Amino acid sequence: MANFRTLKRILAWVLLLAMSAAWAQPAGTTPNTAAACPALLNHTFARLQDEKPQSLCQYSGKVILVVNTASYCGFTPQYKGLEALYDKYKDRGLVVLGFPSNDFAQEKATNQEIADFCENTFGVKFPMFTKTAVTGDNAAPFFKQLAQAPGQRPKWNFYKYLIGRDGKLIDSYSSMTSPDSKSLVQTLEKSLSGKPS
Protein backbone atom coordinates (compact mmCIF):
# COMPACT_ATOMS: atom_id res chain seq x y z
CA MET A 1 0.00 0.00 0.00
CA ALA A 2 2.86 2.39 0.84
CA ASN A 3 4.43 1.66 -2.55
CA PHE A 4 1.15 2.50 -4.28
CA ARG A 5 0.96 5.88 -2.46
CA THR A 6 4.59 6.61 -3.37
CA LEU A 7 3.88 5.77 -7.03
CA LYS A 8 0.83 8.08 -7.01
CA ARG A 9 2.93 10.92 -5.61
CA ILE A 10 5.65 10.39 -8.23
CA LEU A 11 3.06 10.36 -11.04
CA ALA A 12 1.45 13.52 -9.65
CA TRP A 13 4.86 15.28 -9.61
CA VAL A 14 5.64 14.15 -13.18
CA LEU A 15 2.27 15.46 -14.35
CA LEU A 16 2.80 18.75 -12.52
CA LEU A 17 6.26 19.19 -14.08
CA ALA A 18 4.90 18.45 -17.56
CA MET A 19 2.12 21.01 -17.10
CA SER A 20 4.59 23.60 -15.78
CA ALA A 21 6.75 23.18 -18.88
CA ALA A 22 3.72 23.71 -21.11
CA TRP A 23 2.76 26.85 -19.18
CA ALA A 24 6.29 28.26 -19.31
CA GLN A 25 5.68 29.86 -22.71
CA PRO A 26 6.45 33.59 -22.99
CA ALA A 27 3.49 35.82 -22.18
CA GLY A 28 1.10 36.29 -25.08
CA THR A 29 2.29 33.24 -27.03
CA THR A 30 1.19 29.68 -27.50
CA PRO A 31 3.35 26.70 -28.40
CA ASN A 32 2.13 26.97 -32.04
CA THR A 33 2.55 30.75 -32.45
CA ALA A 34 5.80 30.53 -34.42
CA ALA A 35 4.34 27.94 -36.77
CA ALA A 36 1.09 29.88 -37.21
CA CYS A 37 2.77 33.21 -37.94
CA PRO A 38 3.60 33.74 -41.63
CA ALA A 39 7.32 34.36 -42.26
CA LEU A 40 6.64 37.84 -43.64
CA LEU A 41 4.99 38.90 -40.37
CA ASN A 42 7.54 37.30 -38.05
CA HIS A 43 9.01 40.67 -36.99
CA THR A 44 8.77 42.88 -33.91
CA PHE A 45 8.68 46.69 -33.86
CA ALA A 46 8.30 49.23 -31.07
CA ARG A 47 4.88 50.91 -30.90
CA LEU A 48 5.07 54.64 -31.64
CA GLN A 49 3.10 55.85 -28.61
CA ASP A 50 5.00 54.04 -25.85
CA GLU A 51 7.84 52.19 -27.62
CA LYS A 52 6.64 48.82 -26.31
CA PRO A 53 7.62 45.90 -28.58
CA GLN A 54 4.81 44.62 -30.77
CA SER A 55 4.93 41.44 -32.85
CA LEU A 56 3.42 41.72 -36.32
CA CYS A 57 2.25 38.11 -35.82
CA GLN A 58 -0.75 39.56 -33.96
CA TYR A 59 -2.09 40.64 -37.37
CA SER A 60 -2.03 37.14 -38.86
CA GLY A 61 -5.29 36.41 -40.67
CA LYS A 62 -5.94 40.09 -41.40
CA VAL A 63 -5.50 42.05 -44.61
CA ILE A 64 -2.65 44.47 -43.96
CA LEU A 65 -1.79 47.74 -45.67
CA VAL A 66 1.80 48.70 -44.79
CA VAL A 67 2.77 52.34 -45.38
CA ASN A 68 6.04 54.19 -44.77
CA THR A 69 5.05 57.66 -43.61
CA ALA A 70 6.56 61.11 -43.02
CA SER A 71 5.35 64.34 -41.42
CA TYR A 72 6.78 66.89 -43.87
CA CYS A 73 5.93 65.35 -47.23
CA GLY A 74 3.61 66.45 -50.02
CA PHE A 75 1.85 63.11 -49.52
CA THR A 76 1.39 63.60 -45.74
CA PRO A 77 -2.34 64.44 -46.19
CA GLN A 78 -2.76 60.76 -47.18
CA TYR A 79 -2.89 60.11 -43.42
CA LYS A 80 -6.51 61.28 -43.58
CA GLY A 81 -7.37 58.80 -46.34
CA LEU A 82 -5.50 55.97 -44.62
CA GLU A 83 -7.42 56.59 -41.39
CA ALA A 84 -10.72 56.69 -43.33
CA LEU A 85 -9.83 53.40 -45.06
CA TYR A 86 -8.93 51.79 -41.73
CA ASP A 87 -12.11 53.06 -40.08
CA LYS A 88 -14.29 51.80 -42.94
CA TYR A 89 -12.82 48.29 -43.22
CA LYS A 90 -11.31 47.44 -39.82
CA ASP A 91 -14.40 45.48 -38.75
CA ARG A 92 -14.03 43.35 -41.89
CA GLY A 93 -10.40 42.51 -41.09
CA LEU A 94 -8.24 45.36 -42.43
CA VAL A 95 -5.37 46.84 -40.46
CA VAL A 96 -3.23 49.74 -41.66
CA LEU A 97 0.31 49.75 -40.26
CA GLY A 98 2.24 53.03 -40.37
CA PHE A 99 6.04 53.11 -40.27
CA PRO A 100 7.41 56.66 -39.99
CA SER A 101 10.75 56.95 -41.72
CA ASN A 102 13.35 59.65 -42.18
CA ASP A 103 14.94 57.87 -45.14
CA PHE A 104 13.83 60.75 -47.38
CA ALA A 105 14.69 63.45 -44.79
CA GLN A 106 11.07 64.50 -44.17
CA GLU A 107 10.29 63.16 -40.70
CA LYS A 108 10.24 64.80 -37.27
CA ALA A 109 13.10 64.33 -34.81
CA THR A 110 11.47 62.23 -32.08
CA ASN A 111 8.90 59.45 -31.93
CA GLN A 112 6.84 61.50 -29.45
CA GLU A 113 6.68 64.43 -31.90
CA ILE A 114 5.54 62.05 -34.64
CA ALA A 115 2.89 60.48 -32.39
CA ASP A 116 1.54 63.90 -31.35
CA PHE A 117 1.49 65.12 -34.95
CA CYS A 118 -0.36 62.03 -36.25
CA GLU A 119 -2.98 62.14 -33.52
CA ASN A 120 -3.51 65.90 -33.30
CA THR A 121 -3.38 66.70 -37.02
CA PHE A 122 -5.04 63.67 -38.61
CA GLY A 123 -6.64 61.76 -35.73
CA VAL A 124 -4.66 58.63 -36.62
CA LYS A 125 -5.93 55.56 -34.77
CA PHE A 126 -4.38 52.80 -36.88
CA PRO A 127 -1.24 51.16 -35.44
CA MET A 128 1.95 53.19 -35.85
CA PHE A 129 5.51 52.19 -35.06
CA THR A 130 8.68 54.07 -34.19
CA LYS A 131 10.94 55.56 -36.86
CA THR A 132 12.09 52.78 -39.16
CA ALA A 133 14.61 52.51 -41.99
CA VAL A 134 12.67 51.28 -45.02
CA THR A 135 15.20 51.40 -47.85
CA GLY A 136 18.87 50.74 -48.53
CA ASP A 137 21.32 48.57 -46.62
CA ASN A 138 19.99 49.72 -43.24
CA ALA A 139 16.37 48.87 -44.04
CA ALA A 140 14.53 46.81 -41.43
CA PRO A 141 14.42 43.11 -42.44
CA PHE A 142 10.61 43.39 -42.80
CA PHE A 143 11.00 46.05 -45.50
CA LYS A 144 13.77 44.09 -47.19
CA GLN A 145 11.38 41.15 -47.45
CA LEU A 146 8.60 43.36 -48.79
CA ALA A 147 10.95 44.79 -51.42
CA GLN A 148 12.10 41.33 -52.54
CA ALA A 149 8.60 40.01 -53.19
CA PRO A 150 7.57 42.58 -55.83
CA GLY A 151 11.18 43.59 -56.47
CA GLN A 152 10.35 47.16 -55.41
CA ARG A 153 11.65 49.14 -52.46
CA PRO A 154 9.90 52.33 -51.33
CA LYS A 155 10.94 55.09 -53.71
CA TRP A 156 9.42 57.79 -51.52
CA ASN A 157 7.19 58.33 -48.49
CA PHE A 158 3.72 56.76 -48.43
CA TYR A 159 4.70 53.76 -50.53
CA LYS A 160 2.18 50.98 -49.85
CA TYR A 161 2.26 47.19 -49.58
CA LEU A 162 -0.91 45.11 -49.42
CA ILE A 163 -0.58 41.78 -47.59
CA GLY A 164 -3.31 39.13 -47.75
CA ARG A 165 -4.87 37.11 -44.94
CA ASP A 166 -2.38 34.34 -45.71
CA GLY A 167 0.53 36.64 -44.87
CA LYS A 168 1.71 36.88 -48.47
CA LEU A 169 2.27 40.08 -50.41
CA ILE A 170 -0.55 40.82 -52.86
CA ASP A 171 0.74 44.02 -54.46
CA SER A 172 2.65 47.24 -53.91
CA TYR A 173 1.59 50.78 -54.76
CA SER A 174 3.52 53.96 -55.39
CA SER A 175 3.21 57.10 -53.29
CA MET A 176 1.01 58.52 -56.05
CA THR A 177 -1.64 55.89 -55.30
CA SER A 178 -4.05 57.52 -52.87
CA PRO A 179 -5.78 55.45 -50.17
CA ASP A 180 -9.10 55.85 -52.00
CA SER A 181 -7.64 54.76 -55.35
CA LYS A 182 -10.13 52.57 -57.23
CA SER A 183 -7.55 49.86 -57.99
CA LEU A 184 -6.30 49.72 -54.39
CA VAL A 185 -9.81 49.64 -52.91
CA GLN A 186 -11.00 46.93 -55.34
CA THR A 187 -8.02 44.70 -54.54
CA LEU A 188 -8.49 45.40 -50.84
CA GLU A 189 -12.19 44.48 -50.91
CA LYS A 190 -11.46 41.30 -52.86
CA SER A 191 -8.81 40.35 -50.26
CA LEU A 192 -11.18 41.07 -47.36
CA SER A 193 -13.81 38.74 -48.84
CA GLY A 194 -11.35 35.84 -48.65
CA LYS A 195 -10.99 33.62 -45.59
CA PRO A 196 -7.79 33.21 -43.56
CA SER A 197 -5.94 30.07 -44.57
Description:
This protein has a single domain, classed as 3-Layer(aba) Sandwich (Glutaredoxin). The longest helix is centred in the first third of the chain and has 22 residues, at about 1-25. By secondary structure, it is α+β, with helices and mostly antiparallel strands. The strands form 2 sheets. It has a 4-stranded mixed β-sheet, with helices on one face. It has helices at about 1-25, 35, 80-90, 110-120, 140-150, 180-190, and strands at about 45, 55, 65-70, 95-100, 160-165, 170-175.
CATH class annotation: Alpha Beta
Q: Mind telling me which CATH architecture this is?
A: 3-Layer(aba) Sandwich
Distance between the amino and carboxyl termini? 54 Å
Uncertain runs: 14-34
Number of helices: 6
